[in-house]
Amino acid sequence: MILIQGAHVFAPEDQGIQDVLIGGGKILKIGRQLPVQESYGVTCIDGRGKYLFPGFIDGHVHILGGGGEGGYKTRTPEIMLTDIIKGGVTTVVGCLGTDGTTRTMTNLIAKARGLEEEGITAWIYTGSYQVPVRTLTGTIMDDLILIDKVIGTGEVALSDHRSSQPTVDEFKRIAGDTRVGGILSGKAGIVNIHLGDGKRKLSYLKEVLEQTEILPENLLPTHINRSTALMEEGISYAKDYRGYIDLTTSSDPDYLEPDEVKASTGLKMALDAKVPVSQITFSSDGQGSLPIFDEDGKFAGLGVGKVTSLYREMKDAVIQEGVPLSDALRVITENPARLLKLPGKGQIREGADGDLVLADSESLEIDTVLAKGKRMISKGEILVKGTFE
Ligand code: ZN
Questions:
Q1: pLDDT for the residue 290
Q2: pLDDT by residue (tens digit) across 249-275?
């Protein structure tokens, strides 16, 4: 068992100074000055001067790698365990992207299982950008009902030149089948939607919500912050349709596209516009390909999006944008856990999974990461590495 003593707990709501006891992979007890029973072999961690957060959830990661849009040599490599845990992320949802041919569902499910064996929690979406959706079993509903790891469909591309350009009716069927598959399997049944920079923006989602019985929580559009115009439309979608919006964190803040909105800035914009924080999530789009620019701003090659950007943008929201810490935390903990229906995730409470991040209360630097009750990082040092690292 592990006892974290005297940490300032954000669960994500502020719970003040608490001790947290972890055992059997779960949070067993939270309280002030819990007794230390050395005879039970408790390892104590000094949490004084530190914040304790729920482990972070990254709901959109190309765990197998992505890219390939500049030819075969631009396919990005698979993610490694430490790429995930050093950003405090203890839960990922893996997805395919543009390429649903050389990246396959069988490969995706094996990678997710591998990450689980290495110590974190991983789920997946069925499909890729492509429509009809390429599933594992033949249908979206069967994938959701029969395959434990599948929680929804995605990332289906809309308003993008790389989309299959489905009709609105085809998109409605995807959303409907995903919803019913979710109902029958007790999962989220959510469609993760890649939005490009096309002029149709969120029009398909609005049509689904206007013309069908599908609910806003069955749709999660991502990359909302790719332009100011899309960000603004996302804000009105959230307010007028009670829709959920996901902001992408992995762009290099020094080289944003001219009109791109940094995720932390986008969060501030949405909160200022009175979007309830519960309708906003962040994800990294990690391990996808990212253009790199030289000092003169010229294209210099391709890099790989980082999962660590998730926590960076949360910190920037607090430090640079003045968003309250609990609200900023919600977009990477409680909100994705609730929307994606991830049991035991996203909160510090008794009975929840032992996924925790201890960070310095001044610098917010990550000190310790626990996943399913096991120490992965301690005092900034990585204790558990991936099999081939
Ligand atoms: Zn995407």
A1: 87
A2: 998 887 788 899 999 999 999 999 999
Query: Domain containing 18 — which CATH number?
Result: 2.30.40.10
Low-confidence stretches of the chain (pLDDT < 50) are none
Q: Which amino acid is at 14?
A: D
Contacts of 343 (CB under 8 A, 6+ apart): none
Are residues 99 and 65 in contact, defined by beta-carbon separation less than 8 angstroms? no
Question: How much distance in Å is there from the Cα of 103 to the middle of ligand 1?
Answer: 15
155 CA → ligand 1 middle, Å: 6
Q: What is the pLDDT of residue 39?
A: 61
Of the candidates 19, 143, 285, 355, the residue annotated as catalytic is 285
Judge whether 389 lies within some domain: no
**CA 312 → CA 37, 137, 187, 223, 319, distances in Å?**
37, 38, 29, 17, 10
Q: Using alpha carbons only, give the angle 287, 99, 104 rounded to the nearest 5 degrees.
A: 90
- Is residue 132 domain-shared with residue 234, that is, in the same domain? yes
Q: What is the pTM of this model?
A: 0.97
- Which residues lie below 8 Å from residue 77, measured CB to CB, with a gap of 6+? 65, 287, 304
Provide the residue range defining the domain that includes 6.
Answer: 2-53+346-382
Is residue 166 included in any domain, yes or no?
A: yes
Give 16 Cα–ligand 1 centroid separation in angstroms.
38
**185 phi and psi angles, rounded to 5 deg:** -110, 0
Active site residue 285: yes
d(CA 333, CA 313): 13
Are residues 45 and 20 part of one domain? Answer: yes
Counted domains in the chain: 2
Expressed in angstroms and rounded, the spacing between residue 95 Cα and the centre of ligand 1 is 9
Looking up tokens 């391990």 gives 287
Same-domain status, 200 and 112: yes
